[in-house]
Design brief:
single chain; mainly alpha; about 0% strand; globular
């Protein structure tokens, strides 16, 4: 759910930028408006109940993301080669903890591991596929993050696409395509959370009881509206939203819970128990500290780039 909130803000900021550019700022609509307009797409997609139905949409979204990242990387390399790297800071002690939450945010897709495994015909291949996917994501994160910071320096935006020249038709096309890709990814991100909560709330199947099916649809609609409400609240603070989700939600999910379960169920030597205990301690400290920094620095970031100013 936290990942969906960040996705919604990301799309809203891109759409606002593109619309203001195309309208020459004659009509200015707020980021909050673009958050709410996404619900027209998000709510129907949230009604999908079988993860396999997301496969075509996910494939298209991945292709759009790859194309957009290719353009961004090409622009970064060209800019660095022609004008050199922008001024940048090697270490920012005031906001460095936000990096921890943002980095752990990259584990947002971990909730999809079990649903995807369950949907595979050849489950024995999953370990290899998962490892390859993680290594590919790691390379993209490091490459895009490093090159974009070298290109834009301390002026880099939380949504780096906003740093690209607005006068370029290619830039607007990339912003639109990437936003569409992220928009199509949101229902997939919401899928595990909704399935877990529905299993706790509803004991009967919607296949046999139409009233239950529509109760579930109403519940999913309410969840989408909750996401929109949170996104409206953090519309101009995407970096803090990502860090807060990463620290408060994904640090436990990535470090504390797995280590606790391993310690309880599998650890049978003193050394293994020690390693699990260290990971749990690191997770608890990181969760508390980075969550605190994310909250106290809320509102200190500059607002996103506005082409109309």
């Amino acid at each position: 759910i936290g990942g969906c909130c960040a996705y919604t803000i990301f799309v809203a900021q891109n759409w606002r930028n593109v619309f203001n550019t195309l309208s020459s700022c004659k009509i200015q609509l707020s980021t909050e408006f673009w958050v709410l307009i996404q619900m027209a797409v998000f709510i129907p997609l949230a009604f999908i109940r079988q993860i396999r139905y997301f496969a075509p949409v996910a494939l298209v979204a991945n292709l759009l993301i790859i194309a957009s990242l290719g353009y961004l990387l090409g622009f970064d390399v060209w800019s660095i080669a022609t004008t050199g790297p922008a001024p940048f800071v090697n270490y920012n002690p005031a906001r460095f903890p936000l990096l921890v939450g943002t980095a752990v945010y990259s584990f947002e897709g971990v909730t999809l591991v079990i649903p995807i495994l369950d949907s595979l015909k050849e489950k024995r291949d999953f370990g290899r596929v998962l490892t390859l996917a993680i290594m590919l994501c790691l390379g993209l994160f490091l490459g895009v993050g490093s090159l974009s910071y070298l290109t834009f320096g301390d002026k880099v935006e939380a949504v780096v696409l906003l740093n690209l020249p607005n006068q370029s038709s290619w830039t607007m096309l990339v912003q639109i395509l990437y936003s569409v890709a992220i928009l199509f990814s949101m229902p997939l991100q919401l899928f595990p959370a909704v399935k877990i909560m529905e299993a706790m709330m509803f004991t009967r199947s919607g296949r046999e009881h139409k009233s239950i099916k529509w109760q579930k649809n109403l519940f999913r609609t309410a969840m989408v509206m909750l996401i929109a409400l949170i996104a409206v609240f953090g519309a101009d603070q995407l970096d803090n939203v990502v860090s807060l989700v990463g620290s408060f939600c994904l640090v436990p999910l990535s470090f504390i819970y797995p280590s606790s379960m391993h310690l309880k169920l599998i650890a049978n030597t003193r050394w293994v128990r020690f390693k699990d205990s260290v990971l749990i301690a690191i997770g608890v400290v990181a969760m508390v500290y980075v969550t605190f920094i994310s909250v106290v620095t809320w509102g200190t970031s500059d607002p996103p780039i506005d082409v109309c100013l």
